[in-house]
Design brief:
The complex is a heterodimer of chains A (149) and B (395).
Chain A (H helix, E strand, L loop, with lengths): L4 E3 L5 H8 L4 E5 L5 E2 L13 E5 L3 E9 L14 E7 L4 E6 L12 E7 L7 E6 L20
Antiparallel strand pairs in A: 2-3, 2-4, 5-6, 5-8, 6-7, 8-9
Chain B lengths: L7 E8 L10 H16 L8 E5 L10 H4 L7 E5 L5 H15 L4 E8 L18 E3 H8 L5 H16 L3 H15 L13 H6 L2 E3 L2 E2 L9 E9 H5 L6 E9 L22 H12 L8 E3 L5 H11 L7 H6 L16 H5 L5 H12 L13 E7 L4 E8 L5
Parallel strand pairs in B: 2-3, 2-4, 10-11
Antiparallel strand pairs in B: 1-8, 1-9, 4-8, 6-7, 9-12, 11-12
Helix pairs in contact in B: 6-10
Chain lengths: 149, 395
């Protein structure tokens, strides 16, 4: 499945500004400091106003699905892996995995945010396994060297 | 001497043609179904003093349906929405209205017409666009363009956690199709095998095409009234013994209550089942027949676990044991469900529950039909309803 062209809608612009600079910018409550997904509107915990804040970009895999597309499929290109991830800060996001070997997919797999910068449209967020070792595009939280699991 | 009014009962069932039914708007279909349900009960439209209208896809009718039916002097009129749990919510509201005296005879209706002659069925619930806007648009751009993708994530999580297999999901598709063979209203009646299931194309892995429900046009209505009155009407009453809802507030949907993050592993069937069975005074041991909301084979499997028909994680083995099909220990989705019968949201399991309670199931009729469990599931496992129905008044 081709990734569609993404445009701003005036409400999530801080997220896309962050994505363009390889930073994961999500919502955070000014009252109780709880973190939320970029499309959250208010804080369910305390009713407080949500602002934007830079998250660590670290996440773990909750579940995944393989999008094969309609026949004849996507040809020789491996079908994309859609993913439900939990950010270290708590929110769950729906995204894609890149650089993941299907045999390695498991709940709890450590992931790191990664941003793609297409020629057309906004930058977008995907995730890649921590153990894939590629962290070159991410600057939100400088990676520590961690043993491969 | 008049028998006690309680509990409330379903006295009428109206079903339009279902499936590729074109040329009638949802409002027209809804009006037709209400007329059919009222006639089935042996009533006239003027006997209704309540009307509950379900939300559906775009174009579904609202409370203006009352005027379209020429209904006046109503005591109860509203549109309701709990997505796939709406049928259960409507029936419980109607029953509470009858029991409280707020209204005496209430029609509940669902109508939808998402199918169009010129486009494939999947297009009704799928969005492809040249461009996508905002953060949610980005999610769609990345591939989350239909509910299928979200249910695929849920099913995959259950598979990874508990070892549930695609073949076990296939056993549900095969059993449901066997039931459909006995239902003249079912859209798909030709037998299928596990092999057919395995060879059907991926919709989104791990969901094959034969894991996914149909899309249908049409409408279904029921009439709820007091049990005493229902006994004087044309058809045998179907007594409403219990009802319940469950809305877990999963973190996936931004909810704050699902601290353990159990989305995909457990559902609102846990809470709604407990409430409904307690109200009805029954346990899973007493349930003769299940009519489960089967938008996917997986929702049947997880519902069976959450209701307690088997242990958590053993739904796959339970389904593969043959319990669900004709001749099995727990006849489930005896009209072919949404997978093979017709997709009228929560009215699919409810209508077959009424048919089985009345003994109107023809060649698919289950002999023991004393206690029937009917479920509803809305959103992506976000909203759940349960009803307990019976051909007998509660002792």
């Amino acid at each position: 499945m081709e990734i569609g062209v993404v445009r701003r809608d005036g409400r999530g612009d801080a997220f896309f500004d962050g994505a363009a600079a390889d930073r994961l910018v999500i919502k955070r409550c000014g009252g109780c400091a709880s973190w939320y997904a970029p499309d959250a509107n208010e804080c369910p915990a305390c009713g407080g106003e949500l602002g934007w804040a830079t998250a660590s970009g670290r996440a773990t895999l909750i579940s995944w699905a393989i999008s094969h597309g309609r026949p004849p499929g996507d040809g020789p290109v491996p079908p994309p892996v859609l993913a439900l991830v939990e950010l270290r800060e708590g929110p769950w996001l729906h995204s894609r995995l890149i650089g993941a070997d299907r045999a390695d997919l498991r709940e709890g797999l450590p992931l790191r945010a990664h941003f793609e910068h297409p020629e057309e449209g906004e930058s977008y967020l995907v995730f890649r396994p921590e153990s894939s070792g590629r962290t070159d595009h991410f600057s939100g939280d400088r990676p520590r060297e961690e043993p491969r699991s | 001497m008049r028998e006690p009014e309680g509990p409330a009962a379903i006295a009428g069932l109206g079903m339009t043609e279902l499936g590729k039914v074109f040329g009638r708007s949802p409002r027209r279909l809804a009006a037709d179904a209400v007329r059919l349900a009222v006639a089935d009960a042996g009533l006239a439209l003027a006997d209704l003093d309540g009307l509950l209208v379900s939300h559906g896809m775009s174009g579904s009718p609202g409370i203006e349906l009352a005027a379209a039916l020429g209904l006046g002097d109503l005591r109860l009129l509203t549109q309701m929405s709990a997505l796939g749990a709406t049928a259960g919510a409507m029936i419980s509201y109607a029953a509470m209205s009858v029991l409280s005296g707020a209204a005496a005879t209430v029609a509940c209706v669902f109508a939808d017409a998402p199918l169009r002659p010129e486009r494939p069925a999947g297009a009704a619930y799928h969005r492809d666009a040249p461009e996508y806007h905002g953060f949610q648009g980005m999610t769609a751009a990345l591939g989350f363009r239909s509910v299928n993708t979200f249910y695929a994530l849920a099913a995959q999580r259950h598979m990874a956690r508990y070892g549930t297999t695609s073949e076990q999901l296939g056993a549900i598709a095969v059993a449901t199709r066997r039931w459909a063979a006995g239902n003249p209203r079912a859209q798909l009646r030709d037998p299928i095998t596990i092999d057919d299931h395995q060879r059907s194309r991926w919709v989104v892995e791990p969901l094959h095409l034969l894991d996914c429900c149909l899309v249908s046009n049409g409408a279904i209505a029921v009439v709820v009234t007091g049990a005493g009155r229902a006994r004087d009407l044309a058809r045998p009453p179907v007594y409403i013994w219990g009802w319940g809802q469950g809305h877990p507030g999963h973190r996936r949907a931004g909810g704050a209550h699902d601290e353990a993050g159990e989305w995909g592993l457990t559902t609102g069937a846990v809470a709604s089942g407990q409430v409904a069975m307690k109200m009805a005074g029954v346990t899973t041991e007493d349930i003769s027949i299940c009519q489960l909301y089967d938008c996917y084979t997986y929702t049947v499997l997880v519902s069976l676990e959450d209701y307690g028909f088997c242990a958590k994680g053993e739904g796959g083995a339970f389904a593969a044991s043959g319990a669900l099909g004709p001749g099995g220990a727990l006849p489930t989705n005896t009209g072919g469900g949404q997978l093979s019968g017709y997709y009228m949201w929560g009215m699919t399991p409810l209508s077959e529950g009424v048919i089985q309670a009345r003994g109107d199931g023809g060649e698919r009729q289950v002999e023991t039909n004393d206690v029937i469990l009917v479920s509803g599931n809305g959103g992506i496992l976000d909203h759940h309803s349960t009803m307990i129905l019976s051909p007998h008044p509660r002792s």
